[in-house]
Amino acid sequence: MASAGVFQLDMPDASNFEEGEEVSDDYHPLTPGIEDDFLEHGPLKPEELHDHVETVEICEETVNPGQPKVRPHDFQLLKVLGKGGYGKHPFLVQLHYAFQSPGKLYLVLEFLAGGELFMQLEKEGVFMEDQAR
C-alpha cells in the first residue's frame, strides 16, 4: 500500500489573515445569527419561515429521476481516470485529503516512490524532448 505525502501551496489572497492565526473547521451557518435568534426567541413561526426555507414542488421526476444515459465518451473518460475495469492509471496519484489554512492550501496525496518530477521540473524550468523520454 502506498503512503501519503503532504504538499502545501501558497494562497495568493492571504493578506486578510495574520501569520500563525488558528483556523478551525467549526460550523458556520449560511445565515449568520440564526442560532442566536433561535436561542432568544425560540423556533420560527410558519409565517416567519419564508426567509429561511426554499420550497420545492415534489413530483415523480424530482423523487425518482431516471437513469442518466451512458455514452461512449463516458467510458473513455473513466478509462483515462483509471476507473472501471482498466485499473489505476500509472501517472495519476490519488488525493486522500485537502485542507486550507489562511495562507496555504494543503493537499495530502498518494506517495509514489521516485515521484520527484515536480521538483525536477521546478529546478529545470522546461524539459527538452530528449529529457522527457
Automatic annotation (TrEMBL):
InterPro entries: Kinase-like_dom_sf, Prot_kinase_dom
Keyword Kinase part of the UniProt annotation: yes
Keywords: ATP-binding, Kinase, Nucleotide-binding, Serine/threonine-protein kinase, Transferase
The Protein kinase domain, residue ranges: 1-133
Cross-referenced SUPFAM superfamilies: Protein kinase-like (PK-like)
Annotated PROSITE patterns: PROTEIN_KINASE_DOM (PS50011)
UniProt-recorded name of the protein: Ribosomal protein S6 kinase beta
UniProt source species: Paragonimus westermani
The keyword Acyltransferase appears for this protein: no
Coiled-coil regions, chain positions: none
Any one GO MF annotation of this record: ATP binding
